[in-house]
What we know:
Layout: E1 4-7, E2 10-13, E3 18-24, E4 33-39, E5 46-51, E6 58-60, E7 68-73, E8 78-83, E9 92-99, E10 113-114, E11 118-123
Parallel strand pairs: 2-11
Antiparallel strand pairs: 1-3, 3-8, 4-5, 4-9, 5-6, 7-8, 9-10, 9-11
Amino acid sequence: QVQLVESGGGLVQAGGSLRLSCAASGRTFSSYAMGWFRQAPGKEREFVGVISASGGSTYYADSAKGRFTLSRDNAKKTVYLQMNSLKPEDTAVYSCAASRILGLPVLGVSYNYWGQGTQVTVSS
Length: 124
């Protein structure tokens, strides 16, 4: 069982930055690929990015490439999403998720555990 708790969301002006954290419980955090998803009001959940279990590989949605960076600290059981050059269209609830699938899963159904999410609001 893995429990995930996100933090770091908030209100920021366009062009600003935020760093989201996802803290995990459980002894096997280092065996899970960790993904971030977001959901804006009235829209479907959207894949943002994923980092492999080892932290050696990442993959991003086109909307995140060049602006967002994933990292993880397996000793601290935490994954980070650094978001720069934020835009109003980045406004959403951001959730982290853990997947047992080897590699870089991008589909929500590939994830076994989810956090509750943290709100990110970008003002114009």
